[in-house]
UniProtKB/TrEMBL annotation, chain A:
Residues 5-301 form the Dehydrogenase E1 component domain. Belongs to the BCKDHA family. It catalyses: N(6)-[(R)-lipoyl]-L-lysyl-[protein] + 3-methyl-2-oxobutanoate + H(+) = N(6)-[(R)-S(8)-2-methylpropanoyldihydrolipoyl]-L-lysyl-[protein] + CO2. This is 3-methyl-2-oxobutanoate dehydrogenase (2-methylpropanoyl-transferring). PANTHER family: 2-OXOISOVALERATE DEHYDROGENASE SUBUNIT ALPHA 2, MITOCHONDRIAL, 2-OXOISOVALERATE DEHYDROGENASE SUBUNIT ALPHA, MITOCHONDRIAL. The gene is LOC110429207. GO terms for biological process: branched-chain amino acid catabolic process. It is found in: Mitochondrion matrix. It is an enzyme of class 1 (oxidoreductase). It comes from Herrania umbratica. Its EC number is 1.2.4.4. Coiled coil: none annotated. Its cofactor is thiamine diphosphate. The lineage of its organism: Eukaryota, Viridiplantae, Streptophyta, Embryophyta, Tracheophyta. Heterotetramer of alpha and beta chains. GO terms for cellular component: mitochondrial matrix.
UniProtKB/TrEMBL annotation, chain B:
InterPro entries: PDHB_mito-type, THDP-binding, Transketo_C/PFOR_II, Transketolase-like_Pyr-bd, Transketolase_C. Tetramer of 2 alpha and 2 beta subunits. One of its GO terms (molecular function) is pyruvate dehydrogenase (acetyl-transferring) activity. It comes from Herrania umbratica. SUPFAM superfamilies: Thiamin diphosphate-binding fold (THDP-binding) (SSF52518), TK C-terminal domain-like (SSF52922). One of its GO terms (cellular component) is mitochondrial matrix. One of its GO terms (biological process) is pyruvate decarboxylation to acetyl-CoA. Residues 34-209 form the Transketolase-like pyrimidine-binding domain. CDD domains: TPP_PYR_E1-PDHc-beta_like (cd07036). This is Pyruvate dehydrogenase E1 component subunit beta. It catalyses: N(6)-[(R)-lipoyl]-L-lysyl-[protein] + pyruvate + H(+) = N(6)-[(R)-S(8)-acetyldihydrolipoyl]-L-lysyl-[protein] + CO2. The pyruvate dehydrogenase complex catalyzes the overall conversion of pyruvate to acetyl-CoA and CO(2). It contains multiple copies of three enzymatic components: pyruvate dehydrogenase (E1), dihydrolipoamide acetyltransferase (E2) and lipoamide dehydrogenase (E3). The pyruvate dehydrogenase complex catalyzes the overall conversion of pyruvate to acetyl-CoA and CO2. Signal peptide: none annotated. Keywords: Metal-binding, Mitochondrion, Oxidoreductase, Potassium, Pyruvate, Thiamine pyrophosphate, Transit peptide.
Length: 340, 367
């Protein structure tokens, strides 16, 4: 668990820098929420489906997504499972049961309930885990999803990352209820509030929630209280709307990674030497992944037209043909790194 | 020559009106009658029976037997797990349907009317239509959204809008609009079997109408191809395209035009996206004149797209400007006399066809 938390933290630092250097167009960090990501992933099984928002790449790390796979999506190259269709951090992987990230807020909530209902109909020994932030709970989809999950008795775990901020909107402007946990109760969903920066507490809560969801066919809501240490994304400078010393305090004094490290060190399972080794090894893996991903060519032109429908329709086949003809007549007007 | 045409047309119009008469040359035995409601119900029943992944969800679909009784008997036959009565949240149950489809089931999501689909349109477009593309084929959405679309009778502005043009503009969706019972059965079965998300636009006023259906249509394997229009009536003077209820109006208009020596070809679009441009253009190249008919608002409507397609592909064949017959550019009024003037009537189609044939005819309708 710890090494994955470190991986997430390091990946965020390096990829954020890559965006600042202009090598990728966009990035979203998970700084401060490593415990929520990794501990919750560790507490469920690989049979369980994950419907993320966009600040949960740690779940993919736990499930075995490699630095190379992350980098490929961020660079939108030929190896990207998303075929270059979406912005960076919109990871998706069927084999890891991680449903492709879509930018729309809270839409994954009713989708997760639908998938959970389907799991129940199929009598599978599995559940669905879905994540969203404090801001996402204002959306109508949150209301509909929780209500529905309670009525249909769907085996779904709702994890709200209450990190205090929805871009520049603090929770005091987002809702006046006593956090999110009371909302779950209002819908008839068993709810709990957990310290999101305590990896062990997160693990324990999600582990129990999973048992209840699968064995009793019921939804559970977990409100994980944390702080979004990073900016909302690389398009944001959060010092514009919150004090820099507040950010620093949460980054240093309340860092979930450091907290967990202290615990494993006190148990004699970790050392300063292991720490240095781990960090340098992960760092070089990630740097290498970026270097490799940068060089890989982009997806071929044909991928502009595929997957709109299951089969390629005739109008798109014509358009593709037209495009290829235009490219061969005017090659200097088209990028050289897009194979055709 | 005209006598032969008149006989053929007479036979066809009799088929629509009194199929028991033995003038039916195209059927080997006396055709059965089936209402559109029965057609939809039987199609749902057969597809649910054939594939355990298919399930129905929506408001009132279960215990109430369906707001318009389309799902009558299905709850009793398949149980509450496969016929799901949902709470009142279009956004909610659409999202849930999409989630179930992502998982691998085949939901049929019913909107009490498509006006209410606006509550769920983010899920329809952003979660269903675009998912296969955005996920590069990992998230397919074999979902059908169905329900009554367009004007009914005296239901007012918020219950009468036609959504064909809105949904048909979005890549990733397929949009179907059946007219009669054969269309309803064949297209609904095709929609349920299709791996892409399909918008299935029914019409409340057609539910109770009866049409003849052949044995082939009644067979449980019957299916119509998506993307193919049907030429309901062949003609050589002017092409009239229509979908849903307007097909019936166009056919009536064709009978009236027949008496004035204008031989109209009526195309039942059946599929709004993909639009059968080939059938439409072939017809226009034969007749050289085109009238498009729809109930919905005129601006950016289905007729606009058909006109553009014909101008792009068959400009040299047009002998007259393309005319669009559409609903009035106002929210649907409630009063019966006003409502009648806000939707196309048979006379509007007749007049438009005559204008295309350069017969002198006043432009405005008499009140």
């Amino acid at each position: 668990m710890y090494s994955d938390m470190v991986t997430l933290q390091t990946m965020d630092t390096i990829f954020y820098e890559a965006q600042r250097q202009g090598r990728i167009s966009f990035y979203v960090t998970t700084i401060g929420e490593e415990a929520i990501n990794i501990a919750s992933a560790a507490a469920v099984t690989s049979d369980d489906f994950v419907f993320p928002q966009y600040r949960e790449p740690g779940v993919l790390i736990w499930r075995g997504f490699t630095p190379q796979e992350f980098a490929s999506q961020c660079f939108g190259n030929r190896a990207d499972y998303g075929k270059g269709r979406q912005m960076p951090i919109h990871y998706g992987s069927n084999k890891h049961k991680y449903f492709t990230v879509s930018s729309t807020i809270a839409t994954q909530i009713p989708q997760a309930v639908g998938a959970a209902y389907s799991l129940k109909m199929d009598k599978k020994d599995a559940c669905v885990v879905t994540y969203f932030g404090d801001g996402g709970t204002s959306e109508g989809d949150f209301h509909a999803g929780l209500n529905f999950a309670a009525v249909t008795e769907a085996p779904v775990i709702f994890i709200c990352r209450n990190n205090g901020w929805a871009i520049s909107t603090p929770t005091s402007d987002q809702f006046r209820s006593d956090g999110i946990a009371v909302r779950g109760q209002a819908y008839g969903v068993r709810s709990i509030r957990v310290d999101g920066n305590d990896a062990l507490a997160m693990y324990s809560a999600v582990h129990t929630a999973r048992k209840m969801a699968v064995n009793e066919h019921r939804p559970i809501l977990i409100e994980a209280v944390t702080y979004r240490v990073g900016h909302h994304s690389t398009s944001d400078d959060s010092t514009k709307y919150r004090p820099a010393d507040e950010i620093e305090w949460w980054r240093m004094a309340r860092d979930p990674v450091t907290r967990f490290r202290k615990w494993i060190e006190s148990n004699g399972w970790w050392s300063g030497e292991a720490e240095t080794q781990l960090r340098s090894s992960i760092r070089s893996q990630l740097l290498l992944a970026i270097q490799m991903a940068e060089k890989v060519e982009k997806p071929p032109v044909k991928e502009l037209f595929t997957d709109v429908y299951d089969d390629l329709p005739s109008n798109l086949r014509e358009q593709e043909k037209l495009l290829r003809e235009t490219i061969s007549r005017h090659p200097q007007d088209y990028p050289a790194d897009v194979p055709h | 020559m005209l006598g032969i045409v008149r006989q053929k047309v007479l036979g066809q119009s009799l088929q629509k009106v009194r199929p028991a008469v033995s003038l039916l040359r195209s059927y080997s035995s006396a055709a059965k009658q089936m209402t559109v409601r029965e057609a939809l119900n039987s199609a749902l029943d057969e597809e649910m029976s054939a594939d355990p992944k298919v399930f129905l969800m929506g408001e009132e679909v279960g215990e109430y037997q369906g707001a318009y009784k389309i799902s009558k008997g299905l709850l009793e036959k398949y149980g509450p797990e496969r016929v799901l009565d949902t709470p009142i949240t279009e956004a909610g149950f659409t999202g849930i349907g999409v989630g179930a489809a992502y998982y691998g089931l085949k939901p049929v999501v019913e909107f009490m009317t498509f006006n209410f689909s606006m509550q769920a349109i983010d899920h329809i477009i952003n979660s269903a239509a675009k998912s296969n593309y955005m996920s590069a084929g990992q998230l397919s959405v074999p979902l059908v959204f169905r329900g009554p679309n367009g004007a009914a009778a005296g239901v007012g502005a918020q219950h009468s809008q036609c959504y064909a043009a809105w949904y048909a503009s979005c890549p990733g969706l397929k949009v179907l609009a059946p007219y009669n019972s054969e269309d309803s059965r064949g297209l609904l079965k095709a929609a349920i079997r299709d791996p892409d998300p399909v918008i299935f636009l029914e019409n409340e006023l057609l539910y109770g109408e009866s049409f003849p259906v052949s044995d082939e249509v009644l067979d449980s394997s019957f299916c119509l191809p998506i993307g193919k229009a049907k030429i309901e009536r062949e003609g050589k003077d002017v092409t009239i395209t229509a979908f849903s209820k307007m097909v019936g109006y166009a056919l009536k208009a064709a009978e009236i035009l027949e008496k004035d020596g204008i031989d109209a070809e009526v195309i039942n679009l059946r599929s709004i996206r993909p639009l059968d441009r080939s059938t439409i253009n072939t017809s226009v190249r034969k007749t050289n004149r085109l009238i498009t008919v729809e109930e919905g608002f005129p601006q950016h409507g289905v007729g606009a797209e058909i006109c553009a397609s014909v101008v792009e592909e068959s400009f040299g064949y047009l002998d007259a400007p393309v005319e669009r017959v559409a609903g009035a550019d106002v929210p649907m009024p409630y009063a019966a006399n006003l409502e009648r003037m806000a939707v196309p009537q048979v006379e509007d189609i007749v007049r438009a066809a005559k204008r295309a044939c350069y017969r002198s005819v006043p432009l405005a309708a008499a009140a």
